[in-house]
Amino acid sequence: MDIFAKCREFDPVRLYGPLVGSAYFRPVLASTRPGEVMVNGRSVVMAGSNDYLGLARDPRLAEAAVRAVREYGMGGLGARAMCGTREVHEQLEGSCAAFLGREAAVIAPSGFQTNLLLAGLMGKGDVVLGDRQNHASLVDAVRLAGADYHRFRRGDVARAESLLDRAVPGAGRIIITDGLFSMEGDLCDLPGITELAARHEARVVVDCAHDLGLIGAMGRGAPEHFGLEGRVDLVTATFSKSLGSAGGVLAGPAEVIDFVRFCSRATVFTAAMAPPVAAAALAALEIVRAEPERRERALDVAERMHNGLRALGFDTGSSVSPIIPVAVGDQDRCLSLWQRLLDAGVYVNPIVAPGRPVGQEMLRVSFTPAHTDDQLERVLDVFATAGRAEGVIPHAPPGSWTPVRIARPTTCRLPAPQQPTVATAC
Ligand SMILES: Cc1ncc(COP(=O)(O)O)c(C=O)c1O
């Protein structure tokens, strides 16, 4: 049997419908207008990127990258262990460790690859527990290592506990979770996880890919938000989202980071991160540290847009963050709503199977501090018209709706209050 046979039979249009060809892998070009991109020759509002702090096109990142290109050239000279380590890599690692309040850090050319570094810490017989919605790279790290992987539903500490109870004595134990979930925009149950880990002598790893720079008083992610940094053993994060660059970091105790440097195949057998990419990430980290107002504006914008969409009748789920999941619940309707929004000048991401269970199709919407009030109002108008036309929201706004509770530093340690119900004037 030809292993390529399935490729010849693969027909995305038959699987996902006629719009799939235009909804995915579409080139998105730069626009001269902040907060917008060019699609099909038209400037449209970008309401779907992971550039949560609006740093991807910040001139300070570009300048840092250009300086690094002049100094080092484009590529690394080889693997980090051989001749690939440059000053900028060490500076970035030092800066990440300091920012995250950890002893040491190691970087990798992508966030995905950073998570694969974890495979070096695990092996056959070790027991790894992971949230059901953990990112694919965390799951793949466990698979690569050949460790036993068990998934648990968020908040289901009892099930997680029963899985750890079954671990054979002497097996290594790790609990791994995303900090902020990339589709639902909600936070992990870190209090439950760290309690459980303490009872079972398990290590805790949090992937702060989406929360870095955004969540927590200083932007150190979910561990900081919950006041549990001291009970999290390792943090991973990517530079490709809030930091507007690429690559990732694993941070934790110096002895663990050293071990990973020498023993993880994903770092030993790969070239160093491109120096300009590292320099841009370093510049971005400095901006995150120096300009907390970006984070505040990002959260303000998120709150305004969540509530604006909810007031129209959209369901933005359990998100507490700038990741706004707009529930649609049907593949054709989801793609059709996406097309209407784009036609009206708003770019969002349609999330359908296999990225999402059938019946839970959604639009993934997000904004940056760079969006103007004008753009945000325009987006809400476009959503109102398109959502009504597709029957996703009623023609009249709902009589009442529940406001979002954004994960702000000032609210993070308070017990969840009763959600007020807001009556809309209609
Ligand atoms: C939770 C999580 N971890 C890791 C990654 C991988 O990061 P990168 O895209 O920088 O490789 C992603 C990317 O989407 C992610 O959402």
The CATH architecture of the largest domain can be named as 3-Layer(aba) Sandwich
What portion of residues belong to β-strands?
15-25%
Strands ordered across the widest β-sheet: 4-10-9-8-7-5-6
Mean pLDDT: 93
- Biggest sheet descriptor: 7 strands, mixed
Quaternary state, please?
single chain
Helix and strand layout, with pairings?
Blueprint: H1 5-9, H2 12-16, H3 20-23, E1 29-30, E2 36-39, E3 42-46, H4 59-72, H5 80-84, H6 87-100, E4 104-108, H7 111-116, E5 127-131, H8 136-145, E6 148-152, H9 157-165, E7 173-178, H10 190-200, E8 203-207, H11 222-225, E9 234-238, E10 248-252, H12 254-263, H13 265-268, H14 275-290, H15 292-312, E11 324-327, H16 331-343, E12 346-347, E13 349-351, E14 362-365, H17 373-389, E15 400-401, E16 422-423
Helix pairs in contact: 4-14, 6-14, 9-10, 15-17
The structure holds pyridoxal-5'-phosphate.
